[in-house]
Amino acid sequence: MTDMLPSASCPFCRIAAAYPPIPPLTFSQHKQEITGGAVFSTDTTQETHAHLVLSTTSVLAFLDIMPLTRGHVLVVTRDHYEKLGDMGVEVSREWLPVISRVVMKTIFGTDQESDWSWNVVQNNGIGAAQQVPHVHFHVIPRPPLDAAPTAAKMSFVMFGRGQRDELDDEEGETLAKALREELASEVWRVRERERVDLDVDSACVRYQRTKGKL
Asked: Could you name the active-site residues (predicted)?
């Protein structure tokens, strides 16, 4: 395991610094509803702004600014690790299946869950197409092959090939809000059905105290 300090040149480190941990259930209908802007940031620059879906003490999730498909989400470690082999076992791993379900439910609905298709991709090193040297996972929904005339071409597009258009800010925030709301519902579902509490309220409090904000 390699311990690394946040990198001033790393865009994901800058995003992590701009967005403190927030309990996912903040967006649940069971609690006071708070808008994305009020919760996640009051002072971000264009350089640190992200269409945030999740922010915990160990990971963040936000929309890719150059998505391969609608709903393309990045899951990144809060701490700076260049490659997967640099990480220790203490870094949370439970969020990948949760974010996968959240993305697919938001993009495709729940009518045909058995037909969902998506990629979870993680690259290590320039030779493996890693563009940002900070551990991150891509969660990429794949449209049904018969969904649109271009879907067959888009369905298996991978990195370095195909068209990637820049994410529109207004569309991005609308989609991020829908993803955050679905995430809150998923956290409740996991709590009730699997008896696992994914809400990070107490962890967020500890984080704020260590940063001298409480």
From this structure: 136 (tele-amp-histidine intermediate)
CA distances from 12 to 16, 77, 128, 205 (A): 6, 9, 19, 22
DSSP three-state, residue 119: strand
CATH architecture of 11-194: 2-Layer Sandwich (3.30)
Under 8 Å between Cβ of 190 and 196: yes
Tens digits of pLDDT across the chain (214 residues): 555 667 778 999 999 999 998 888 876 544 444 344 434 444 556 667 899 999 998 999 999 999 999 999 999 999 999 999 998 776 666 799 999 999 999 999 887 788 899 999 999 999 999 999 999 999 999 987 665 555 445 445 555 444 567 888 889 999 999 999 999 999 989 888 888 888 764 455 555 555 555 4
Amino acid identity of residue 64, one-letter, is D
54 by DSSP, 3-state: which?
A: strand
Q: Are 31 and 67 in contact (CB under 8 A)?
A: no
**Is 136 marked active-site?**
yes
Strand, helix or coil at 61?
strand
Q: Residue 100 belongs to what H/E stretch? A: helix 95-108
Catalytic residue (one of 49, 51, 134, 136): 136
Domain ranges of the chain: 11-194
pTM of the model: 0.79
- CA within 13 Å, CB half, 139: 25
